[in-house]
Amino acid sequence: MPRITIRGLSVEQVCQISTSVVDQLAVICECERDYFTLECIQHTAIFDGQIVPAYPFIEVAWFERGEEVRKQVAKALTNHVLGLGIPEVEVAFTTYAQDAYFNNGISFK
Asked: pTM, whole model, 2 decimals?
């Protein structure tokens, strides 16, 4: 945790930034590198009956760490994607409630 789901980038692009982005996020979140999960979702974007290029969209699912950390994480992810020569990226956060999250049947509450 956090789980980072990325759409609109190729697997190769995600691999290219994976080490440096996790290094930076671990410092920002003050947690171990192996807490992070990166997932690259390959999909087809369609508009008006045509296949169109997908824009990068990154979802961060996590336990809330505060607005300042959220801003730093969004900026770090954005900068890494822009560094690939991609002109635009969106980042959204999904927050888990500890009483609704279980590991091996044990609540995080």
From this structure: 0.91
